[in-house]
Every structure is written in structure tokens, then in C-alpha cells.
Amino acid sequence: MFLPKLIDEDIVRWLKEDIPYWDVTTVLLPETKKESKARIIAKQEGIIAGLPIVKRIFEFAGVNFVAKIKEGDKVSKKTVIATVIGDIKSLLQIERIALNVLGRLSGIATTTDKMVALARKHNPNIKICATRKVIPGFAKYDKYAITIGGGDTHRFNLSDMVLIKENHLRFFDSVSEAIQIAKEKTSFSKKIEIEVQNEEQALEATKSAADIVMLDNFPPVQAKIVAKKIKEINKNILVELSGNITLENIESFPLQYVDLISSGSLTHSVRNFDLTMLIE
Amino acid sequence: MFLPKLIDEDIVRWLKEDIPYWDVTTVLLPETKKESKARIIAKQEGIIAGLPIVKRIFEFAGVNFVAKIKEGDKVSKKTVIATVIGDIKSLLQIERIALNVLGRLSGIATTTDKMVALARKHNPNIKICATRKVIPGFAKYDKYAITIGGGDTHRFNLSDMVLIKENHLRFFDSVSEAIQIAKEKTSFSKKIEIEVQNEEQALEATKSAADIVMLDNFPPVQAKIVAKKIKEINKNILVELSGNITLENIESFPLQYVDLISSGSLTHSVRNFDLTMLIE
Amino acid sequence: MFLPKLIDEDIVRWLKEDIPYWDVTTVLLPETKKESKARIIAKQEGIIAGLPIVKRIFEFAGVNFVAKIKEGDKVSKKTVIATVIGDIKSLLQIERIALNVLGRLSGIATTTDKMVALARKHNPNIKICATRKVIPGFAKYDKYAITIGGGDTHRFNLSDMVLIKENHLRFFDSVSEAIQIAKEKTSFSKKIEIEVQNEEQALEATKSAADIVMLDNFPPVQAKIVAKKIKEINKNILVELSGNITLENIESFPLQYVDLISSGSLTHSVRNFDLTMLIE
Amino acid sequence: MFLPKLIDEDIVRWLKEDIPYWDVTTVLLPETKKESKARIIAKQEGIIAGLPIVKRIFEFAGVNFVAKIKEGDKVSKKTVIATVIGDIKSLLQIERIALNVLGRLSGIATTTDKMVALARKHNPNIKICATRKVIPGFAKYDKYAITIGGGDTHRFNLSDMVLIKENHLRFFDSVSEAIQIAKEKTSFSKKIEIEVQNEEQALEATKSAADIVMLDNFPPVQAKIVAKKIKEINKNILVELSGNITLENIESFPLQYVDLISSGSLTHSVRNFDLTMLIE
Amino acid sequence: MFLPKLIDEDIVRWLKEDIPYWDVTTVLLPETKKESKARIIAKQEGIIAGLPIVKRIFEFAGVNFVAKIKEGDKVSKKTVIATVIGDIKSLLQIERIALNVLGRLSGIATTTDKMVALARKHNPNIKICATRKVIPGFAKYDKYAITIGGGDTHRFNLSDMVLIKENHLRFFDSVSEAIQIAKEKTSFSKKIEIEVQNEEQALEATKSAADIVMLDNFPPVQAKIVAKKIKEINKNILVELSGNITLENIESFPLQYVDLISSGSLTHSVRNFDLTMLIE
Amino acid sequence: MFLPKLIDEDIVRWLKEDIPYWDVTTVLLPETKKESKARIIAKQEGIIAGLPIVKRIFEFAGVNFVAKIKEGDKVSKKTVIATVIGDIKSLLQIERIALNVLGRLSGIATTTDKMVALARKHNPNIKICATRKVIPGFAKYDKYAITIGGGDTHRFNLSDMVLIKENHLRFFDSVSEAIQIAKEKTSFSKKIEIEVQNEEQALEATKSAADIVMLDNFPPVQAKIVAKKIKEINKNILVELSGNITLENIESFPLQYVDLISSGSLTHSVRNFDLTMLIE
Predict the structure, then answer these.
(1) Could you tell me the sign of the dihedral formed by the alpha carbons of C199, C203, C208, C210, in that order?
(2) C-alpha span between B17 and B116 (Å, rounded)
(3) CATH 3.20.20.70 residue spans of chain C
(4) Distance CA D235, CA F224 (A)
(5) Which of A144, B59, B189, E277 could be bridged to E155 by S-S, CB 3.0 to 4.6 A?
């Protein structure tokens, strides 16, 4: 999915942060020609994401990396995820960065997968979407992990899609004016989404034919009513629900009436996937 | 704490990630000379961290930022954290990055503060420490948030302090040999810590006069016994407890017998601090 | 449109390329406290694009820049575009880079504007679109100039929209399979376009409900027939014509039957806009 | 000519611009172990420039590149320029950047070659020279293409040679003073050129022994007279003609009396070389 | 000691500085398939430092590098340090940068080694330390060369250790207050050193249990008296002497009474190690 | 001489090297609104170089810098070079980098000035030249300091001038062939220098009209004989002497017969200029 060499610039930055001069511990190890072998092992159940990136990190340090499972596989506790073989000093310098990446991305994928499973019990076509609430500088990888977990990236960034939010809307006379101007000024190649605060706005957006209407912080009951009305007017418009939806509360929302659920918690409050690396 | 211009390189990177070409939504807004004003408001209780960084982000976009509280203050729900005034287009382009930084750092500080408070009920001198389980590329800010929450950064990186872990130890004949070599080869300017797996190693490390002995994944009862023995031998040696210690379980550990508690969860499983920006 | 400080990284790169050590000519000038004033003057008729970028370049060198026209204005020969005032040594070091940017972007905007005018004589709603045939490293600015000339950027880059081209299609069983997979695997936030080589593919794409169907190198007569058929099946599908369409030959295409014309020549074979800077 | 790894920094920048997250189209292709093969084919006659750079771009993505012609060769329509073999997803992600580079550089080389041929009919020793009117950030490659087309780079940048232009001259009392100061203050390692506006200045520059005298925008007749006078005074001084000289009008200039013709159009108004990549 | 790929970013920067466009001399050489071989030869006696870095520089250019001695070996005049084999054009482009690095680092190591030898005649446990008086941008390599010469790096940078100097001290009420605050606010992972100007301060620092006390510019006689008093109070406190100590004058200091000697001259006034590269 | 903002990229790099996280010492200082003032004072006699760069460093940290002397002035011991006023924490973080730059550049300028003075006693027109034996990454500043000391930069880098050295010459049939090819293939904008090993080569180079002939490691007597012969044949050819010429031995060379002396020691074995910063 990523051209391997395009990840290198990030790897250099990550490693320079962790080794600004040199690793004062591994320099103490005796010189040896013998290669060391280690296994990366899951300490919990879940979905593994980030193998191609972690492979590149190990290779960056001259360490051979062999994945024992496939990207996106569900593993159980004690599953061997990968083996790595190489110079022990390189291996130990790179270990923490690699596990930090794998732990975060697998954590995101695991929670996404759970949320998808819960939501699809109610609506097999629903999509669980990320937001832009990612770690600055790490967005590409956070979004990637969402897809591995079965989720939808939503727009990557501000250049990707028009999304007229409440703070934009106050500078237009009306919802319909905002959508009208967006359609005139925006490239044909981009979709137009609008975030609405109430039923009136939602229906106006629908009539103006936005591509996606986001119901922002609607209580579940009202969300259901409005989503149905939108679909009755134009079934091609996608309806997105947003606002503090988490793994814990998702089933309280009218999942069978909407197309998209977006959840900031997937990336802004990640629960790290528990991993360890054991040297043999 | 940071030279403001040294943050800019990160800000550029974060913004280019989020605006690789241009923001296709804010370009739709009408031109106006009038400045807009917005307030950043807490939606939960906790410790705010990251104000100097967020100030720099807004100023980077030409937006004036005035903090209404001090870095590290404890706020309650609805507290106004800061006001920002400036061109609405700049403000809206920068909003998400700023809130992402402030939300993460305040989240880290808030949890750290809680963990410090819990631990100090038992031992007023104990330090709650971070680990290197941070987001790659974001370590400087994660570590900073720990200090604002009243925690200890632990070593910043691999160049900072010697920390001989289990994976290093297997390449030495003994704990004492490892410490001996570290003392010979390491700059006088650095401390030497060793991670041990059992009492025997712990006492050997103590006799070899490591600066810090880390009891790795010791059950609470054993941790207490070993910590006491270390202190009886040499009260100047710092004792660190480590291994899946979290806000939830910290009080089950023998806090009054140790100097340092390190917890990866402080940075690898952050709960974002809930914030919003409201335009007036 | 651009956050000014986000342009600086490019300006540094451009200037370091042109002044790797120092300017060996301006160091010869006598020291003076007196500021110099210069005017940037059009030597041809056309649309000016790039003023905000050029303003930033001059300001980068501490030179004051005052635009005398608005971005996107049509100027005639001898129009004063801007005045600049500042230290003569800074001004002369920066002059060439500034004019190179302004000349290229205004050249792109001028040709785009002409092509839009020609096409809209036949179809007032048609859009003239760029391609990805831009200068590597300069895409953001090339695309921007297209919009100033009244054109459509088309997708910014490969992360922006799905565009299934002939070289992709050979790896699918059929047009409809390709579109089906795209719809399943792609984020809801992105449109799906397909390039087709013949009528059969075009109609299959239409029935599969691609968002945009691009008729690649269709002869004008055939393009007209196919475009009409597409619209009869689904009037919401956008039809794009592509393949060596230039300012010279555009009127030979069935402009009233299609929505989009894309032309690589707008950015890959730019005619520079003729400008000069005169010191008073 | 270039150390291959020194091109990589540019390649990374070019690719990140075109793939800021990932290519949303090639991810749709089915996984395959089979390598794909493609040919890069000329669609017009001309000189090919840029093969070493394009080779490095393909190799950057792990694709094997075999040139079928030599750098600088003249090709005719349908000539196979190179074959590439590799993973189809990598190949398709890299294709556009590679063709953009090859198309621009071959376009520059082709026009340069034509202008050299025209000029040398009149003066076998004349040199066709580039200017600094290049694309910012792409100067190294633009200048390189000039040499492949048989032209002269002129100075690379402002650190390379002294060139006193009209805008500098106004800060000196006279042409001779300017040249005198340049000789005193400039490193022995650099040549000194001066741009003159009239015969008087030209002869003063000659007597002051500038290395090169550039006749700026002289009408052909006057250029001939002045060039002859310069050579009569000092045949070692090089005479350069400059000012809107293009492929179309070059033969109207007194080519047999001058040493150098410089033409901004070679790089600021490039006609792209038409190429295609066909997958087998 | 360094991950090889982490050196590459520096190599790119060094080479771009020396070859901003291309090497106009080596392009003149005839094409050849034949590889050239050269030897790098010492022209003086001393310690060689920098082989892993220089190896990486040559490999960066595709040139094979085989060290004939080990890093840190003492060589005599005419010793062959390494042989390099590869394309002559690459080899000649890279030669100067490689020799500049090897010459500086070996120069530092050679002087350090001499100073260590002199000092250890008087005190076999004394450490000769660098300072932060390095070349900006080259600190990592300067510090590394110190270790190869048998010296101590001292702190790498300002994030590494607390060092309270005279200019800091004036902002505290007393030496003991400064040390007290440092102990409270600083991470357990860092040592605390204080620079003192007189005996009174030195003893106060000793009683406050700073980890290291630096006697700044103390005359030898006084240094001896104060060092002895410090050790009598607390033998675990390290005593550092600093202030214009050089290879020439080091033996005039009371070396047997102190632990550490720091000398800025080791890195700020380096005598280059004389080397040459001969092509066979 | 430098555009101030073009220095910033280097300053950022230098500071990040010295403050990878934050300065753990200055964070201990109490907060104060009061600005601190300091003076930078010479502790030796010599030429000061680097003021514009150091000014930029202090301003980068928000500290006001006022030079009390002019760039290139000769100062005596205790001369106040500049005063700086600003926030004490910023000032102390930046101090060392600033002094490192000023110390090195003034050291280079001081030695250059001495060598120029010595040589001009014998030949008032002789130029003392640098070489490419600079610190990698610091070349621009090292070369700049040479000019402030009254020296000549020689070529900046490999793209600047042709210099055919012994290692190149072995790939040509003869000196004259090498020069002939250089004249054919090199841009008119560059000079051509050749390094020769004996009289025969020197005279052949002279007859081939190289711009500069460098006598490499010629003994003084032979250098004088050959230099005279070159000048008799063509007085316009510059003669350069090179090979271990230092401040100590320069007067033993035939200075009145040559134009240029180049000395690697000026930059590869710099004696730092002794400076201090005193806070008032």
C-alpha cells in the first residue's frame, strides 16, 4: 500500500528522535558475528496492523523481518506475529520504535474491527469512519490502521473533500447558499459534505443535494427521524452520524437508518495493543 | 520551555500533512476584513498542557492567542482555556491541529496528575514516570506533558542514560559484569539503570552499585520484599517498579517502598482531553 | 488560499538552489541605507496569477510588496502589476525567483482563461481541467494557477480520487467489476472515475454508475455519440473528454455534449507570461 | 553525471506531493506475484534527456529500468526508449512522475538541439545558452537537459559567476568602475560578465576587460556593428546576445559575429516531449 | 555505533553542499567500465577515527571500502588505512568529503589520546572530557571521535544533564538553593553538575551533594586544595577541572586529585590529521 | 551578504542538535519579566567574523543583538564585540552555539589576515586562498570567514570551476588533451584550472592556455623558476602555489612570482578565537 522507500523519511525522523547521538546501552554489548533471533508476540487478542511498516523499520536497521501472519489477521494471546533475525545491537536499537508503531496501529485496528462488528449486527452496509482527530505527523498511519480494521478513512485531510461545518456555516446566509457556492467553486473531483445541527438544516441540505449530510450530535431518536426523512427525499444522499460515538455507546444509535458513523475516539483515545519481543 | 521557533519545524510538518494542497472548504468563505473571535473551552475536568505549543500554532497562522489559564492549571468543565482572534480562514484551517495537540497533551497530563495524586497518598516522595512508549515523532511533546502533569520524564531517549534490560543482560556473564562494563565505558555524565527479573539479580545489582534498579513485572508482595532489601543494603539506590501499572491498579503496588513507578499507559494509551472551539 | 508560512519551505528551497553560497554580484554594490523601489510590469496581455506567493517571496527577503492589481485580473501590456520597495541587495537577489514564479503561473492562468472562454462559447457550463502532467515539486502552484484562470484542478494527486485508467483496467475482468470493487473498497469520501477506450466500455461504466466517465482519445464524432448515450442513461454522470486537446483544436470537439475537458498542455507545455522588473 | 543517491531526495519530494497518503486506485488491483512489463515509447521525434534520472525513479519504486537508447540520442516517433519490469502497483504509482520528468527534459533537449543546429549553420563555434529562467526547485535538471541538447548551461546560479546587469549598474558611477570593483573583490576563480545597453557601454566594458560582454536586446544590425568593434579591440572577450531570442527568430540575429546566444524560452516556455508508457 | 542509514542524511547534506549541481571536472573524464582502486594513506602518526562513517560515505557513492586497520588503531606515517574500489567518477566526487571527515575525526582522536596518556601518567583513573565547544551541526561526530581517542564525551547536549554554570547561578540565592531546586525539578535519570568559582561555593556544592563539582579556572594550587577538601567531605562526588587546559599545559594541573579534566581545545581548535588518497 | 532567513535552516539544525528535547538546566531558573543584558568580549587580539550570523542566532531566540564593532574589525583583548539583551532563559540556551560560530569564524579570519599581511610584504597583489578542506556542512561559513580575513574563497565547490588534479590527469593522454577537452565541454561561464606536478606539465598547461596553473608541492626554488617561465609565455595565466603552506612557512615560498597561495590549514586546522559572554 505504501512504497517502502516513502516510509523511510518517517523512520529516519523517528529514529533520530530516539537516538540523537548514539545508544549508550547497546555500545556496551560485546562484538559478535552471530546473529540473534527474536519473536514478536501478541499479549492480547485482536487485529494486527502495521506489518509492512514495521518490516521496513527492521530492514532499515539491516534486520531481517518475517511476518508469521498476514496484515489484518486476527490473533489470539501468544500468537507469534513475526520473527526477526540480525545483529543484536541493531535489533535492540530499533525494537522500541517498531513496537510503538505496531502497538498503536494494531490497537486502532482492533477497536475499529470491534466497532464494525457491533454496528454491522444492525446494518450490514454501515461504515465506521475515522475523523481528523489523529496524532499530528502520524495521520497517514492512523488512517491506514482504520482501513485494516475494516473502517473507512473518511477524508484524509483538508484538501480532500469539502466539509462545511457549523463554524463555516455562520459565514453563509443559509445551508442552501453554502452548498450552492461549494458546487460552483469546487472541483468536480471532490464530494461535498455538510454538517447540520437540526432537522431544518438537514432537509435544506438534502434538497440542495449535498453528497453527504452529517447529523452532528443528534440525540438517537431525532437522528432516526431525520435520517428517514432525508432518505425519503433522496435515497442517494449519504447520512453520517457523529458526536462522541464510541465502542461503548454505538448500539444506542439508529444504525439501521444511516450510512456512516464517525468516531474520533478510534484515533484520539487509542488503547495500545499489547506486544512483546522475546530474544531467543 | 521550548524556544518558540524550534517548534515551527514540527508545525510545518503537521500542517502540510493536513493541507497538502489547500483547504477546499475555507476557500468557499466570503472575503472579509473583520476578525473573528473564538474561545477554546474544556468539556471535562482535568489538567491543561500544551498552551505554549498551541499558542505557537495559532501564531504560525497569524492568529492571536490569549491563554485564560496557566499551563498546568486544573480546569473544570466549561472553563474557557483561551481566546483566539484572527482571520477566520486561517483560524479554521489551524483549529483541528491545535485541538489535536492540546487534547492529547492535556489528556496525558490529566492522567499523570491523577496517578501522582493516588501514589502520593501512600508515599509523598514517589515519582510517576513515563517510558519510551510514546508516539514516534511526538516524543518531545509526550514527555513534556508528563512533566506538566507532575510526572517524571524518565530518560528522553537511548542517548540519555544507560538502561540494561533483560534483552541486553543475556549478552553478559552476570548482572555485576554488565554494571561493571557500563561504569567503565560510559560517560561520567550518565546514570546507569538495570532492569532485573528476580531477587538475586536485584541484590547483585545493588551490590554493584547501579544508580537505579528496576524491578520488572514483580508481583506486589515480592516487590516489597526486594525493595526493602535493596534499601537496607544501600539507601541511595533508587528502586523503580515497572510492568503494566495503570491508574486502575497502582494502589495494589507497595508504593511506600519504592522511589519510582513507570507506566507505559500514560503515553501509549492516552485518553484524549475533551475540548471544543466555539466561534462567537 | 495558502497559509503564508507554509510557502516558506518552498521559498527556502528555491533560494538555496539559486544562492547556494552567496550572490557574488550583489556583494559588489556599495552599502546604502536608501531603499530602492521597483515596479513589476506586464509585457503582454493576460491573466496574472501568483501574487500572494510572490508577495511572500519578497517579504521573505525583507522587501515590501504592494500589488497594484488583484489576483486573477486581466492586464494589458505595460500594466504595473506591483511595486516593491526595500534594500537593493535583497531585492536583486530575489528578483529572478519571483519573476520565474509569476511568469509561469500567469502563463498557465492566461492560457486556461483563453481555453475556458473558447469552450464556454459552446457550453456555458463546461469545465476546463488540468491533469497530473505538472512539474514535479511544483504541482500545488500549477494547480492553483489553473483555478485562477477559471479552470478546474481535477484531482490534486493519487490520494484524492479513484481514476481507473487503461493500465489498471487490464487487471480486472471487466469495467463493471472494476467499478464494483472500487465502490466496495474506497472511502465514501472519494469519487470514482473511469477512463474508457470505446463505446462499449463507456456504456458499461455508465450502467455501473461511475461518478465520471472519461472518453480517452475519442474522435470528436464518436465522442459526441457516446456522450449523448451516457447522458440518456444517467444524466448525473459527468462526461470528460481527454487526449491532446489544446487551445488550438478545442473547438473541434463536441463541447456542448460533455461536462469536462482535460488538457495536459495547460501545465506541461506552458508559455511563460512576459514580465519585467524596473528599478526606478 | 549525478550521483544516483543524490537524486533520491528530490524523488521523495516529488512522490510525496503526488501520493501524500496512498494511491487510492492501485490499492484496488488484485495481488499478484507476476511482474508486469511496460515500454516507454516516443510519440514524436527529438532528443531524449533524463534517462539516468528516470531510471533512478523506477528503481526507487523497485522497478527494473532498461534503457533501449542512449542519453541524448535522437529518436523518431514510435521508438522504444526503455522497458520497465516490476510489480504493477509500484509501476503505476511511479509512472506519471517519471514521464513528467522525461517529457520536460526531452522537450528542453529537443528544442535546444534544434536551436543549436540552426545557429551552427551560420557559425560552427557558437554556443546556445540557457538562462536562470528555470522552474524554481528544478534548476539542476533544466540545466542538465540543456547540455544534453548540446547547449551551454550559462551560470548555474548567483554564486557561480559575476553578471552585472542594468539594475546593478545604476549603483556604480560607470561601466569601468563596476568592472574594476568586480575584479578587485571577486575570487580569481570566477568570471566577470557585464550586460550593456548600448555601444558606448559595450566598448567601455571591452576596454575594462570584462570576460564576457552581453548585448542586451540590441537590434540585429546594431548587434553586428558592436560585436565587430568589441572583437577588433580584444578578440578574447566573449560576446553574448540576449533578449527574446527563440527558435523562430534566431536566424535574424548576426550569429557569425558573436560567441553566445542566450534564450530564456529554452526553459521558461518548454514544449513537452510526447511520450507514453504501454503495459504489455 | 551508528546505524549506517542514520548517517545518510548527513552525507546527503555534505554532498549537496559540495556538488550543488554537478561536478564540472569529473564529467570530463572518458567513460570506462574499468574500476579504479585507491589507497587512503596516513601522512603522520596518530589514532584513526571515523572509519565507519567514511565507509558509509564511499558506499553512498557505490564505491567499495575496505578498512585495513581497526577503528581507533594507532598508525604510523605511510600506513595504508583503507582501500577503495569503484567507478572513478564517483570516487573522485566523494574523495574530499571523506578525507575531510576522516582528517578531522582522526585529528581529534589523536590529540585526545595524547592528552589521556599524559594525564594517566599522574592518575590512571582520570578522564579527559570534551565540552560543547564543537562545530555546530557536527557535534555527534566530534563527540564520537573523543571516545575513539579514549576520552569522555561529557554531556552530549543541553537535554542530557544539568550543568549549573556561573551565568545560571546568579539567578539563585545560593549554590545550595540551586542544587536543591535542581534535585526537585529534574528527572531522576539525570545527573546534576555545578560549576563553582571559589572554595566556598565548592564546599557548599559538596554539602548539597551535587553529583559533580566543576572547578572553573582554578589556579593549580587552589584546585588541589579544594579538590582534596571535597573528597574528604564526600568521596563519591566527582571533581572536574576546567578552563584553558590543553595538551601543552595539562601536566601543570593537580591531576592526581581530580576525576575529570575537560578541554574545549580538543574540538574547537582541532589539528587536522594529515591523509592522502592515491589512485593506483 | 546572506539573506537572514536563509541562515535559519542552519540555525534550526544546530539548535536541535544541542537541544533535542529541552534544556534541563535553564528550566530551573525562576520566571522573570526582567530582561538580562550580556556582553560578548574578546579574550585575544584578532579579526572578528560572523557578526551577521550570530546576530541572526540571537534574534532567532528573541534576543536583541547590538554589534559594537563592524564585521572584519581588528579587536584587542577585552574589546566588547556586542551586547545582547533579552529573556535570560533564551539567552543561555543560545549562548554556546553563538560563541561556537563566532569563535570559529573569527579564528579563521584572524589567521587569514595574518597570512595575507605576511605575504603582501613580499607581493602586494598576491591572494591567500582557501581550499575545499572545510568542515562538511559548514563550508558556506568557513568560506565566508576567509573573505572577512582578506582571503580569496577559491572555488566554493565542485560545480563552480574546473580543477583538473593529478587523479584526473591520469585518465587523459596529456595535459594538453585534458585542457582541450575541458575547453570544449565546459560552460563558457567557468574557469579552467590544472594542477601540475613538474615543469614540463606546467609549460604544457601554459601553452594550452589554462586559466590557472597550480604548482602542487613544488619546492620553493623550482616553484620560482617555473612561475617565471609561465609568466614569460603568457602573463595572463594565474599561477597558484599549493601544498602544506602555513602561517609558519609561507615566507619561504617565492611569493613575488606567483598570484595565488592556497592553504588548507586555514580551515582544516582552525585555532578558535577566544571569546566570552558575561552577564551583567
Answers:
(1) positive
(2) 35
(3) 122-268
(4) 31
(5) B189
Which are the contacts of F171, defined by CB distance < 8 A and separation ≥ 6?
Answer: E29, E30, E32, E88
Q: For residue range C184-220, list pLDDT tens digits in order.
A: 999 999 999 999 999 999 999 999 999 999 999 999 9
Nearest-10 Cα torsion for E10, E11, E12, E13: 50
pLDDT-derived band at F31, boundaries 50, 70, 90: confident
Q: What share of chain B is helix, strand, coil (3-state, %, to 5)?
A: 45, 20, 40
State the chains in contact with D (3 or more Cβ–Cβ pairs under 8 Å): A, B, C, E, F
| Minimal Cβ distance to D18: which of C23, C32, C132 | C132
Among the partner residues B6, B9, B153, nearest to F19 by beta-carbon distance? B6
Answer yes or no: do C27 and F1 touch at CB < 8 A: yes
Q: Is a pLDDT exceeding 90 seen at residue B272? A: yes
Mention the CATH class of domain F122-268: alpha beta
First CA to last CA across chain D, in angstroms? 32
* CB-based burial, F262-271: b 16+ in 10 Å, e otherwise: bbbbbbbbbb
Which residues in chain F have their CB less than 8 angstroms from residue B157's CB? 20-21
- Distance, in Å, from the CA atom of F46 to the CA atom of B224, rounded to the nearest integer, reads 65
Give the CA distances from residue B76 to residues A244, B42, B83, B280, in Å, rounded to whole numbers and listed in that order: 19, 7, 17, 21
Q: What is the DSSP string of E12-44?
A: HHHHHHH-SS--TTGGGSPP-SS-EEEEEEESS
State the DSSP string of F105-151: HHHHHHHHHHHHHHHHTT-TT-EEE--S-S-TT-HHHHHHHHHHTT-
Q: What is the CB neighbour count within 10 angstroms for residue B221?
A: 9
What per-residue confidence (pLDDT) applies to E14?
Answer: 98
pLDDT of residue F1 exceeding 90, the answer is no
Q: Do E127 and B159 touch (CB under 8 A)?
A: no
Q: Which pLDDT tens digit goes with each residue over A214-261? A: 999 999 999 999 999 999 999 999 999 999 999 999 999 999 999 999
Minimum Cα–Cα distance from C21: chain D residue:
D159
Q: Give all chains having 3 or more CB-to-CB distances under 8 Å with chain E.
A: A, B, C, D, F
Tell me if residue C64 falls in helix, strand or coil: strand
C193: DSSP letter: E
Q: A88 and B124 in contact (C-beta within 8 Å)? A: no
C-alpha–C-alpha distance, residues A62 and A59, integer Å = 5
- pTM, full prediction: 0.97
Fill in the DSSP letter of residue D272: P
D127-129 sheet: strands from edge to edge: D127-129, D260-262, D238-242, D212-216, D192-196, D162-164
CB contact under 8 A, D153 and F260: no
Which residue does chain D place closest to A9, by CA atoms? D12
Average pLDDT over residues D201-209: 98
Fold (topology level) of F4-116+271-279:
Aldehyde Oxidoreductase; domain 3 (3.90.1170)
Cα distance between residue C253 and residue C273, in whole Å: 27
Q: Kindly report, as residue ranges, where domains of CATH 3.90.1170.20 are found in chain C.
A: 4-116+271-279
Q: Which chain D residues have a beta carbon less than 8 Å from that of F188?
A: 127, 129, 152, 154, 212, 238, 259-260
Residue of A nearest to C239 (CA): A188
Inform me whether the C-beta atom of residue D189 falls under 8 Å from chain F C-beta atoms. Answer: yes
Residue C34, amino acid: K
Find the farthest-apart pair of alpha carbons in chain F and give their distance in angstroms, rounded. 74
Three cell numbers written together for A97: 520504535
Q: Report yes or no: B20 at the C interface, CB cutoff 8 Å.
A: yes
Minimal CA–CA distance to B274: which of B81, B113, B139?
B81
Output the nine-digit C-alpha cell for B239. Answer: 528502586
Q: Which residue has the cell 538541439?
A: D113
